[in-house]
Write a structure and sequence with these properties.
- The structure is a single chain.
- The chain has 590 residues and is an alpha+beta fold.
- It has three domains: 79 residues; 314 residues, Glycosyltransferase (Alpha/alpha barrel); 137 residues, Ferric Hydroxamate Uptake Protein, Chain A, domain 1, CATH 2.170.130.30.
- It is 44% helix and 10% strand.
- It has a five-stranded mixed beta sheet, covered by helices on one side.
- β10 and β11 form a beta hairpin.
- α1 packs antiparallel against α14.
- The longest helix is centred in the N-terminal third of the chain and has 33 residues.
- 38% of the residues are buried.
């Protein structure tokens, strides 16, 4: 009997020692994993952690948007972070957004168009869902991918309607989760590749319009490199040589843009630099060589960092900006994955056919060191319990049996207590009351002053084009209204402190009118690039959108023009810098 007891204590002691050693080993592995770049030469680790913390804090409630929405979530999740409450809140909000805000939902097929023209909304959400290991073709009975296959009356894909970035991100979205691995998907991929190759500039690179002339745009070129990355130097039959040669020219074009210190393009903003980092890490360029362009770009990106907040600035002398911070966080995560030889930022490696099963497995975050430690502890405790059970079986002492049995019961109860809370799922079943008042107001315009309503009128016209049809691009004829009126004069209610831009955003969204703008936070300015798919330069070199209030063209951007009750807002397309519509110094682009 004494030998049995001695053996028991020896076995238990050995098991506890094993538990300590194994757990310590997993802790060490977990810590090494979370500190992937030990030689933190460029302040990279600090910047990565700080940017993710900043993004998570600023986007406390995620929305469907390019700011405070999917990019924040994608960077956070791809960076190995986990916050089920945050991501579950996004999924519930997304479902409600689709039901109440989406441009089109076919309840029979599940097809969803989030926006009337901006297919990038669908593409961005596809990437967010895929990052969460959720099948974007079957999100709560809805298919976000189907919108990518939409065609116009001529049988052409609509992906390029808002710009060439719509084509690039369609390819990225499809390949992110290996969606549409069939003939239809193959045809769309080939069309995207053909379109991107055919719209390359003579000197390499691309711009938003896909024009053959003019200079390349750094951020657009980088986005298309990201789209081509899965096809680069890979044994793929379709236009492999063309893609490889095209990528080389684009890389050379980016280096030239970056070398030009007077270049005012997005290469001189943190957003553009972030896109280049994501592109080069996806292509697999070596970032550890001192002569490497990627190293130089990364060091440049870190100069935009605000050490106090952990966020990033749009321009070196600007203020911390949410959009710039989200893009920088994504870039740093991409660099982290590159250094650790993980899959590139957008290669999420889930097949649509299997992602439903993988979604359940994704609930356990194996990239999190704490999860690994708990698994190790669980295995060791289980071994101890098995040993105790064996001794209970062998010993003849009733007292020893009772003590050991009590230990087993306490251990099981303790395990149940600690492990039960960790059962949250990525895709919970929404309750009927999921849409709270906060959800309903999330996308409403912010009240900037007193809670008091005023009225104004707004109209959108492009009738000046009718007198300059010889200048209009042929592909734009189909989007031109016959009488030149996009939006007839209508009365709008607004809150004190709101701007012309606030009202334009709300009206175009409510009326399902395509509108694209470029924000410059440092100047608190929004530049109107296109409305109803009519953009600047679509009708000659002096064409674009301008606006006037009460018959007077403003010298300020639309976001800087505060409204007064009774104001009359007119957005007008000019073909001659405002001279053809009664103005001499209109602010182009609002």
């Amino acid at each position: 009997m004494k030998k049995t007891i001695k053996s028991f204590f020896c076995i238990v002691l050995s098991a506890i020692s094993t538990l300590f050693v194994v757990s310590s080993g997993f802790v060490a592995i977990a810590e090494e994993s979370s500190n992937s770049f030990i030689d933190d030469v460029y302040g990279y680790q600090t910047a990565l952690t700080g940017s993710l913390d900043f993004v998570r804090t600023q986007a406390s409630e995620l929305i469907v948007d390019s700011i405070g929405g999917e990019w924040a979530l994608i960077g956070f999740v791809r960076g190995g972070r986990a916050d089920n409450t945050w991501t579950d809140g996004y999924l519930n909000m997304l479902e409600q957004y689709i039901q109440n805000e989406a441009f089109f939902v076919d309840k029979q097929t599940g097809k969803v168009f989030l926006h009337s023209e901006k297919v990038t909304d669908n593409e961005r959400v596809i990437l967010a869902l895929t990052a969460l290991k959720i099948d974007a073709t079957a999100f709560r009975g809805l298919n976000l991918v189907s919108a990518l296959f939409d065609k116009d009356q001529r049988g052409d894909y609509k992906l390029a309607a808002q710009g060439i970035n719509g084509v690039a991100f369609a390819l990225i979205a499809l390949d992110s989760g290996n969606y549409a691995q069939n003939a239809e998907g193959e045809n769309l991929r080939k069309w995207c590749i053909d379109y991107l190759l055919s719209h390359e500039k003579a000197g390499g690179g691309w711009d938003l319009r896909g024009a053959a002339d003019g200079d390349a745009s750094a951020d657009i070129t980088a986005m298309i490199l990201q789209a081509f990355a899965p096809y680069y130097k890979k044994d793929r039959a379709y236009r492999k040589d063309d893609i490889d040669a095209c990528i080389k020219r684009a890389v050379d074009a980016l280096k030239s843009l970056y070398a030009d210190v007077d270049n005012g393009d997005t290469v001189r903003t943190s957003d553009g630099v972030s896109q280049i980092v994501i592109a080069f890490t996806a292509l697999g360029y070596d970032g550890t060589d001192d002569e490497s362009f990627l190293k130089e770009i990364l060091e440049n990106l870190l100069t935009y960092r605000d050490a106090q907040t952990g966020g990033f600035k749009h321009e070196p002398n600007g203020e911390t900006d949410q959009m710039a911070s989200e893009h920088a966080a994504c870039a740093l995560v991409a660099y982290d994955r590159y250094l650790n030889k993980a899959e590139p930022f957008y290669e999420m490696n889930i097949a649509a056919a299997n992602s439903a099963a993988e979604s359940a497995a994704a609930d356990v975050d194996f990239s999190n060191g704490k999860t690994i430690v708990w698994i190790a502890i669980g295995v060791a405790v289980l071994m101890i319990l098995i040993i105790i059970a064996y001794i209970i079986y062998k010993t003849k002492s009733v007292r020893i049996k009772a003590v050991l049995l009590a230990i087993c019961i306490v251990a099981v109860l303790a395990g149940a207590f600690f492990l039960a809370p960790g059962t949250e799922k990525h895709n919970p079943t929404p309750s009927s009351s999921a849409k709270t008042n906060e959800d309903q107001s999330r996308n409403s315009p912010a009240v900037k002053g007193k809670d008091e309503s005023f009225t104004c009128t707004i109209s959108i016209r492009c009738d000046a084009i009718l007198n300059n049809m010889n200048l209009l691009k042929p592909e734009k004829v189909s989007v031109l209204p016959k009488d030149g009126t996009i939006l007839q004069t209508m009365t709008i209610t607004f809150n004190e402190g709101e701007s012309v831009f606030d009202v334009l955003k709300r009206v175009t969204r409510e009326k399902r009118i395509q509108m694209e703008f470029k924000s410059t936070p440092i100047y608190n300015s929004a530049y109107i690039q296109g409305i109803n798919n009519l953009y600047e330069f679509d009708c000659g070199p002096l064409s674009g959108w301008v606006y006037r209030v009460n018959g007077t063209f403003s010298k300020y951007g639309a976001s800087q023009c505060t409204l007064k009750s009774g104001d009359i807002i007119e957005f007008v397309y000019t073909c001659d810098l405002g001279k053809d519509i009664g103005g001499d110094s209109a602010v182009e682009g609002g």
